[in-house]
Design brief:
Number of helices: 11
Largest sheet: 8 strands, parallel, barrel
Structural class: alpha/beta
Shape: globular
CATH superfamily: Trimethylamine methyltransferase-like
Strand content: 15-25%
Order of helices and strands: HEHEEHEEEEEHEHEHHEEHEEHEEEHEHE
Helix content: 40-55%
CATH topology: TIM Barrel
Distance between the termini: 29 Å
């Protein structure tokens, strides 16, 4: 039986955004802060300026990367019963958080999150049937910053049998994380067959690629680890004020990341991601808005146009200042709208990026 869905963009509008994205990559170009990535792009056929890091990517290079990218991606887990495949047929929910602060549910006080908080959330997410994978709900602020993401990953894998999705900020950090996961599953070749973790690599909007995260993504791709390329432009801030313009920037940033991944390791598993938002022009702060949902719905359709797996932020906007019924209804409505386009992974179960979205020891869902 077919499922009801929402179609936000027409076929001609999708093609217009695709064409505009290709023009941005070729005419405006991107800035890449990693020399190894610049070498990869130059070899692929891009025009590279090593002094400034500016790269112009021709259309044919992008099209070749799209051909090389796998159309389905396997997400394995420590327990094989929790394995699943991203094939654009079913939405899988990811328990997420990421905020450095939380509210202690017993005292009501705002404080830094710790590795113990991540462990507690991981155990809760592991228990919930409707959660398919976990991203650390909080941050290990109790350990030195250079090892924080490694501790997050170890804590998540130690306290859950489900797939872990995390972060890397340097190539060396990614190498350590790969070795840890390989030790768990029985070696690098087994990890390549059954990747028990994936990583999100964010671009620096507009159209920039950080040295550390880019080199981490290259290491992960070569090890067969799924990489989620996640642009995060804000309409009116780090992206154009128009929704279509911000979608073009987001899509171009993804395609630039895809080119780096596929030409560094042909056939590397890459997931299309979208986490765009809007800003309050009075304060410059990000804010929840209906426009966020419209852009996510559109980018989800573009990912389907490319026939790529997609991960989308469905955290759900709310104007409530506390965790109350209003917050629940508003978040639920936003999430239901987003999943109507069947993204492979929906981020947002358990909280969002604002401090009041997460409470110690319990999920607000």
């Amino acid at each position: 039986m077919s499922k009801p869905g929402i179609s936000f963009l027409s076929e001609s509008e999708i093609e217009a955004i695709h064409e505009a994205s290709l023009r941005v990559l070729e005419r405006t170009g991107i800035k890449v802060m990693s020399k190894p990535a610049l070498d990869i792009l130059k070899k692929a056929g891009a025009k590279v300026d090593y002094e400034t890091g500016h790269v112009s990517i021709p259309r044919n290079v992008v099209e070749e990367a799209l051909k090389m990218a796998p159309k389905t991606v396997k997400y394995a887990a420590r327990n094989p019963r929790y394995d699943f495949v991203l094939n654009k047929q079913e939405t899988h929910f990811c328990a997420t958080g990421g905020a450095p602060f939380l509210l202690d549910w017993e005292t009501g006080k705002r404080q830094y999150s710790t590795s113990e908080d991540i462990a507690r959330f991981a155990r809760i997410a592991d228990y919930l049937d409707h959660v398919d994978l976990i991203w650390p709900l909080g941050a290990s602020s109790d350990v030195p910053a250079p090892v924080r993401y490694i501790v997050d990953m170890c804590t998540g894998l130690r306290n859950s049998e489900k797939h872990f999705e995390g972060d890397s900020t340097t190539g060396k950090e990614a190498q350590y994380q790969i070795e840890i996961a390989a030790a768990i599953v029985g070696g690098r070749e087994e990890l390549r067959k059954r990747p028990i973790f994936s990583h999100v690599i964010c671009t620096l909007s507009p159209l920039c690629y950080d040295k550390g995260m880019t080199e981490a993504s290259i290491e992960l791709g070569r090890a067969g680890i799924p990489v989620v390329v996640m642009p995060v432009p804000s309409a009116g801030g780090t992206g154009p004020a128009t929704l279509a313009g911000t979608m073009v920037v987001s899509n171009a940033e993804f395609l630039g990341g895809l080119v780096i991944q596929e030409f560094s390791s042909p056939g590397a598993p890459v997931v299309y991601a979208a986490s765009v938002d809007t800003i309050d022009f009075k304060t410059g702060a990000n804010m929840p808005s209906p426009e966020n949902s419209l852009m996510h719905l559109g980018l989800n359709k573009i990912a389907h146009y490319y026939d790529l797996p997609i991960e989308i932020s469905v955290t759900g906007g709310t104007t409530s200042k506390v965790l109350d019924t209003q917050a629940g209804y508003e978040k639920a409505t936003t999430i239901l709208t987003h999943i109507s386009t069947t993204p492979d992974i929906a981020l947002g179960m358990g909280g969002g990026w604002s401090p009041h979205d997460i409470c110690r020891g319990v999920s607000n869902w």
